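Batch manifest, entry 17 of 40.
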Amino acid sequence: MKPVIPIDKSEILKRYKPMNPKTHKGLQGHALIVGGSYGKIGAMTLSSKACLKTGCGLVTVFIPRCGYKIVQTANPEVMVLTDISVKYITKIVFDFVPKAIGIGPGIGQDIETHTALHRFVKTNEIPLVIDADALNILSQNKQWLTFLPEKTIFTPHQKELERLIGAWDSDTEKIEKAITFSKQNNLIMVLKGAPTKIIDGDTIYENTTGNAALATAGTGDVLTGMITSLLAQSYEPVDAAILGVYLHGLTADIALPETGYQAFIASDCIEHIGKAYLSLEK
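Output type: structure tokens
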């Protein structure tokens, strides 16, 4: 097994860029998050709010029309673009150039969404974070992987990972397969779990923050928003993944004394991003 680099505070401080006191929202990056489908708009409200709370200057979402009022009401700071379709995404179009794009939270696997994702990846050159059903669609169409920008970030949970790289019999085999997949496709793999590992070619990182409270609906959507935010703030893809995973886990560590394990929900993750950042300044 290759040596593993722990993602701890000293590793983070090598990469973390404190806020420039003279910055403005235009310099803090504009992120686009694409996703949502009927019954899964909550994934987009979580992801977009986490994106803002992680320091992005501007956040726009692209969602089906059924989510318009929901996101505008839940997150008034977020701008909203809608698909022509009411219930799911059929064609991804936007009239600005984002610094980073996150795609997948709540997106579903409707056949028209498959087509929309195919068209999107064929033409997109903007740094990408891919999650959830966008990963599942790609796992059914692996020939599309050649279209992705270098160092695109994948954030699979165990089942999504298995669909991408095939089954494994041991942790060692899982990591070896993930390394091969990362190298073949020039991708960064965020293997969500306890602990979360990040694979960047032959380099393996292991997160040191987080706890069982994160085993709840929506925390993955939050992570996607956080990593997309950091990518939009001009962090290198591997640094965005490392910092995002560390801060995400840290929110659960900070919240745990208040919430306990059972009562922690994904929104608590978002509420504690500020305190997670403040701990880096100490």
